[in-house]
Protein: Protein from nitrogen regulatory protein P-II (GLNB) family
Amino acid sequence: MKLIIAIVQKEDANRLQHAFAKESIRATKLATTGGFLSEGNTTFLIGIEDKFVKKVMRIIKGESQGREEYLNPNLAMTGFDVSSQPVKITVGGATCFVLSVEEFKQF
Ligand code: 2BA
Structure:
């Protein structure tokens, strides 16, 4: 068994959640915050048999899209806006980690 941790943009989260439900893929949805932008994103925890990992990754890839954001570097690093040029960054699609699960139990 594997645990997939998938961090997606919140704009894609509901669509992804529905795609999981449609395929009977069990997932837990967490409201999270990116450490760099300090903006809300969504993290899914998906416990899944090894043979379905590729399918889950395909669904995540299909439902997540990258977006361009403009970041004020001073605001990000110091918390103060001392107006410098915004920097364009590309956020997401999805950031995924696949971990081996040592034990899975439900009581
Ligand atoms: P954030 O940490 O808010 O990062 C948002 C975007 O800012 C990143 O998009 C990337 O384009 C940029 N960025 C982040 N750290 C940077 C840095 N030190 N220097 C320059 N640019 C930087 P993504 O890479 O697509 O990441 C989207 C979100 O996924 C992240 O939001 C974070 O919540 C999560 N994430 C990404 N990599 C991770 C990792 N290695 N471990 C844990 N979470 C991660």
Summary: Residues 7, 34-37, 39, 41, 89-92, 95 surround 2BA (CB under 6 Å). The chain has a mean pLDDT of 91.
